Amino acid sequence: MATEQVFIALGGNIGDSSTIIEQAIEAIARIRECKLRGRSSLYRSAALGDVPQDDYINAVVKIDTSLQPLTLLLELQAIEHAYYRNRDEEGRWAPRTLDLDIILFGDRNIDDSHLVVPHPEFAKRRFVLEPMLEIDGDRFVPGYGSLGYLTDQAPALCMTKLDKNHG
Asked: Is 35 part of any domain?
């Protein structure tokens, strides 16, 4: 079965976010019909929106998968649920233990009630673009441009790349 390359953004700011993100990366690597092809460093970034909250820990992974997009989405939501993520009770900018977003799914454009790909906000989110640039710097996103260009155009955001010994 043919595989497609998928980018998944991870983020969280409740609990030991660095550990949760690392565990979520391991869980993604164990999803059936998925192979982890790359992962970024962890990044600490300021929260978006007007809700006062702790900084986020973010990362991006690149996988190859033969799963269909909605099947992968359900697998990712199961991982979120394991970390007590409840999308129904959270506001858009609310703190969360774990957020997993499909950013790109091959070169597909998907727009339905469950999933929009490319992720509608990714080109404005430096905390997604910089980790993507780290693991796939030559990527060109049809309709958007190169990751380098998108990163240069993204709004400024207070971000720190973390090494493996600091969270």
From this structure: yes
Active site residue 101: yes
CATH number assigned to the domain comprising residue 84: 3.30.70.560
> pTM of this prediction?
0.93
Give the number of domains in the chain.
1
Residue at 167 is within a domain: no
The pLDDT assigned to 166 comes to 46
Q: Which of 44, 101, 125, 126 is catalytic?
A: 101
> Among 96, 107, 126, 138, which one carries the catalytic annotation?
96
Mean pLDDT of the chain: 91
Residue 120: how many other CB atoms lie within 10 Å: 9
Residues of the chain with pLDDT under 50: 165-167
**Pick the catalytic residue: 85, 125, 126, 136?**
85
Q: Is 85 a catalytic residue?
A: yes
